[in-house]
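User: I'm curious whether this sequence folds into something compact or stays loose and floppy. Could you predict its structure so I can see for myself?
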Amino acid sequence: MAKTQKLPPITSDTKILSFDIETNDLHGKAFAIGAVLVDANGKVVDEFSGRIEITGPVHEWVKVKVLSVITDMPVNYKSYKELQEAFWQWYLKAEEKSDYVVVNNGYPIEYKYLLECQQIDLEERYWQHPFPILDLASLLIMIGENKNEFVKEFMKESSFKTHHPVHDAMVTALAAFKAFRQAGQL
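Assistant: Here's the prediction. I'll summarize afterward.
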């Protein structure tokens, strides 16, 4: 059975699921995931935070830009597979409660990760994906905003840290709601 596309009206009851993944290099393995289910008032309804030890050499950029800001994210999973399963189970429940799934520049990392999770049991998970998945950059282009400047505004107004996956997921959700408001949708 095919999955029906979710395109509900955007209202004050809308909920966004947003997730962000940190990898050991752009095409490396995921080692930290942050995900939030946020309502239109910016309240976190549900949250996922998962991290594993990085296996192998750590990319220099990751050492400087990511590991230094995720010190508050304990390693709470023993393996890549365990992290995938935990995220997938959380995602399935949160996605049911969400109206839209939004990522910030999801290719290649977030899109690839969802596909990897589905591949674990493709027969069962064949239709268990976001439909649609919105990209923050596309939303901002439609309203004439520069993504980098738009997102920096949220970082300045909060204690959020760039490259912290929970913070990045939250900023993406908040920025998407602001884009919906500016577009006159909310």
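Summary: The beta strands are 15-23, 30-39, 44-51, 100-103, 133-135. The mean pLDDT is 94.
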